[in-house]
Amino acid sequence: MLVAITLGAIAAPKPEQRSRTLMLSGITAVLVLVSGFGLLGLGRFGFPGWIIVKLGIWFLLAALTGVAFRRPEQGKVLSLLVAVAVLIAVVMVVVKPF
Fold first, then answer.
1. Which string of DSSP letters, residue by residue, matches 73-92?
2. Is the alpha carbon torsion for 38, 41, 42, 46 positive or negative?
3. pLDDT at 45
């Protein structure tokens, strides 16, 4: 959901929908963070390095929604950044390299 809201803001950064989109992004980001730490506690993984990478990606995705409204001309770069971030997040979960 956070990725969808971020990509939606990048694709159509309409000023009249700015506050609604940023509110949805913030609420979704908090829900992702809380549920992620809940699952981390249930799984008893400890705090491995791949979790730190995923936290960085979470922060990046949460911040990019606001950036999309400030720099709408850089939509292609921001979309590529989101795609790479999601790919890295998925690889971190599947491979768990560290």
1. GGHHHHHHHHHHHHHHHHHH
2. positive
3. 80
Structure tokens at 95: 């491979």
Contact 20, 8 (CB under 8 A): no
- Asked if residue 83 lies in contact with residue 48, where contact means CB atoms within 8 angstroms, the answer is no
What average pLDDT does this structure show over 7-36? Answer: 95
* Nearest-angstrom CA–CA distance, 76 and 20: 23
State pTM to two decimals: 0.89
Encode pLDDT of 17-30 as tens digits.
999 999 999 999 99
Confidence grade of residue 58 (pLDDT, cut at 50, 70, 90): very high
Task: Return d(Cα 70, Cα 89) in angstroms, integer.
Answer: 25
The neighbour count for residue 68, using CB atoms within 10 Å, is 27
25: how many CB neighbours lie within 10 A of its CB?
A: 23
Domain ranges of the chain: 2-95
Cα(14)–Cα(95) distance, integer angstroms: 38
